[in-house]
Amino acid sequence: MRRFRVLLAAVVLAGVLIAPACADDRIKVVTTFTILADFARNVGGDRVDVATLVGPDADAHVYTPSPADAKTIAAAKLMIINGLGLEGWLPRLLKSSGGTARMVVASDKIVPLKASNDHHGEADPHAWQSVANAKIYVENIRDALTAIDPAGSSGYMANASAYLAKLDVLDRDVRAAVAQIPPARRKVISTHTAFGYFAAAYGVTFLAPQGVSTDSEPSARDIARIIRQIRQEKIPAVFLENISDPRLVERIATETGATIGGTLYSDSLTGEKGDAPTYIDMVRHNIKALMGALAR
Amino acid sequence: MLYEILIGPFTEFEFMRRALAGVLALALGGAPIGVFLMLRRMSLVGDAMAHAILPGAAIGFLISGLNLFAMTFGGLIAGFTVAILSGVVARSTELKEDASLATFYLVSLALGVTIVSMRGTNIDLLHVLFGNILALDDQTLLVIAFNATITLIVMALIYRPLVIECVDPVFLRTVSRSGAPTHLIFMALVVINLVNGFHALGTLLAVGLMILPAGIARFWSRDISGMLAIAVASAAVSGYAGLVLSFQTGVPSGPAIILVAAGMYVLSVLFGNVSGLVRQLFPGRHLEA
Fold first, then answer.
1. B10 Cα to chain A: minimum distance (Å)
2. CATH fold of A22-171
3. Which end of chain B, N or C, is less packed with Cβ atoms under 10 Å?
4. What digits encode the pLDDT tens for the residues B8-23?
C-alpha cells in the first residue's frame, strides 16, 4: 500500500514537471466555422493553433455541437465568432463548456445589412461575402491576437498586412470581372440568401427561393413567386450552393429555362481537395462561376 | 376567381402538377395501408417503421449522395430487416410484436445516427429528414407511382387473408397457414409506402398521409371496402387542398397537407356517421321492425 502511494506521488510529480514541457506552446484559437479559421490561420501563422467547430461543407446555421466541441472551447485561449446572429447555438455551448477563452466578434465595426427575405428584420450574418468586410474581419482578428499575445504582435502585423494586400487584389479582380457582365444580365437565383453583402458591394442581384436561414422549408407560394420572377425579369442563371437542397433549384431551372450555373460557396469552405479550400479560392471560384453563366 | 384559386396554380406551374400527381399516388397506395394498420391497432407502428427506415436512407445518401435509388434501396433494406426481425422474434418468442419492433427500430435508428455522425456532417441528415413535394423530378415521380401500383396489386392479391387476419386471426390460423406470410408481405408494403412518403413529405410526416385518412374513414363507414374508399378519397382531397393552401398562404407544403387532413379528422370526430360525437349526443330514432 505504502509503495503504491509513493509510486502514485512519483507519477503525479512527474506529470506536473513534464506536462508544461510537452504542451504545445502555440496559442489555441477556436473559430466557429471554416472561413473564420482561414482568416485566423493567415494572420496567426505558426504561432497559433486554429480549430474550427463547424467543419468544411457543413452548415453553421443549424449546427448541433458535440461534447468534443465543448472540450475544444474549454482548451482555447481565444474564441473567434462571426456574430450578427449566425451562431445561434453558441451561447448554450459556451455556458456548458465552462471555458475561459476571450471572445472576439469578427464582424465588429461592420455595418450590417438587413436580411433581405426575412420578416423579422434581423441582420444578415453573411458579412464576409464582401471582400471589404473580409478586411475588417482580418483586422479584428489581428487586434484580438495582438491583445492576448503581445509578444507575437510584430508577426501578426506583418502577416495581416500581407494578407490584406492579397484581399485588395482580390477585391479589384472581382470588380473587374463584374464590370464585364452586361448590367441587364447581373441577376441570378441562388438557393440561400447568403450573398446580400456581395450584391450590395458589387452590384449583382441575388434572388433566393428560401429565406435567409437554410432551416426553413419553402412553401408552394415561395417557389411560384420565384418562377414568376425569373420569367418576368428574364433572369439568365440559377446557382446551387454546397449547403442547400439542389433538387429544388433543378426543378425551378427546368420550369423556367434558366441555366444552372454551378455551385456558389457561401457559408463554408470545402475540404483540401474541393473547389474552395480557402477564402480567396472561394471568392475566385464564385466569381468564375458567375462569369461563366452571365457574361455571354 | 374560384378558378384562379383552385385550378390556376396547377395550370400555370408544372411543379404544382407534379406535386399533385405525387400526392395522388401517395394517397392511392398509402391510405389503404393506413386503414389496415388502424384495424390491426398498429397505427403507431407506421411511425416506428419510419424511424427504422431513416438510417437506411441516410446510409444510401452518404454512399452516393442525393441518389434516389440508393436512398430508396437503403430505406427498403433497413425497413425490411427491422420488420422481418421483429416479426420473427414476436412469432417465435414470448416478446410481443410492439416491444420487439420498438427494440429493433431503436437499434436501427441508433446505428443510423452513428453512421451519419461518423461522416461528420449534419446537413445530410436534414435532407433525408425533410423530403420536398415541390421538388419531385421525373425519377422520384416514377418511383412513387411504381410503388403505389405495386402496393395496389399486392393488396388485391392478399386482400382476403389480410382482412381475416384483421378481424379474426385465430380463425385464419385454423383454416389456413397464410397468416405469417400475409403479415410479412403487409409489413413490406408498409415499408414501401413509407419510403414513398419520405420522398414527398420527409420521414417525419410520411406517416401522416397513411394514418390520418384511415382515422377519418373510421368515422364514416363500418365495412372495410367503404373505409378504404373513403380513406383514399380523403387522402387525395387533403393532398390537393394542402397544396392549394400552401400556394395561397405560404405555409410549407408538407405540413399544409397534413394539417388539412387533421382538419378533416376533427370534423369527422364531431360529425361522423359512425360514432361521431354529435351523432352520439343526438341519436336518430331507432328503426323499428
1. 11
2. Rossmann fold (3.40.50)
3. C
4. 888 888 888 999 999 9
